[in-house]
Write a structure and sequence with these properties.
The protein is of the alpha+beta class. It is built from twelve helices and ten strands. The strands form three sheets. It has a five-stranded antiparallel β-sheet with strand order 7-3-10-9-8, sandwiched between helices. It has a three-stranded antiparallel β-sheet with strand order 4-5-6. A two-stranded antiparallel ribbon has the order 1-2. The longest helix has 23 residues.
Length: about 325
Amino acid sequence: MLDERKTAILRAIVQEYISTAQPVGSTHIASAPGVQVSSATVRNEMAVLEQEGYLVQPHTSAGRVPTDKGYRFFVDHMAEPGRLDLAATQRVGEFFDAAHGRLEEMLHRTSNLLSQLTHQAALVVGPPADKAVVRSVQLVGLSNRVAVVVAVFSNGVVENETVELDADTTELRLSAAASHLQHVLQGKVLDRAELTTSGDPDTDVVCRAALDALVAAGSEEPVYLGGAAVMAQSFEAVETVRTVLETLEQQYVMVSLVRDVLNRGLSVAIGSEHGVEPLAACSVVLSPVVVDGERLGTVGVLGPTRMDYPQALATVEVVSERLGRHLDEGAG
């Protein structure tokens, strides 16, 4: 554990570097609130902090910058609990008060809102459709052996999946299958629905194919990314930008990252802590979206390790709470 003076110096360096992105020298820190010692004393303490892995000196004549360990100490021990300012809080409230229509579109716009508020890339992991109540099901034939099953859920999700059939199927049989699926699924949660027989084996085959397609698609957690272009302004190295953007496009990787970080009980993963090597230059700040005690999604921001952690934490918390309320109202 660092003593009080080293803690104050490290806090001041982290805050200054977050603000300027420039290596921090001892002269500037000597007069920072809570420090108030000579530049020589600050230099000595900075040297100790460097030896202990909290700081690094990028060039011999340059000041210091925080390491991942330094940011972690800042987040765990020093960062004041952030509060979203009144204007931003009102903006979030107005956004969700006016939100309506398809859930997919609303979640995408939520990711854009979060990015605009934090000036970071933002991600929203939506609830899987199979956790929601089915409101209606339709089957539409595209050819004798191909149909589309369309399901509308209580949370506003609309799933449409292509179904390949083993035998020629008439419009009459598709209509019978749709009617039976509607009878079986309406008012039920998809992942708990049990398919009963319709009395016609051929119709049952169509129903089973359609339900399997819905369940397979409905179990996926959709990811919506906002503000990816912001990442291009966050790093000087073109290769870093390219690697980060390519990784953000991989939905499975992002869902796995979010799940792993939350399962470890973390709300902030700094640098290599999140375990995704191509994003080692980034930190992620997450807040789960909880409805009736169950996590139905996640909101988060992803940016360089020098992000403003208190502000990011405050923003994702407010947005996740309002999104949870919106999903709860939509399920009612």
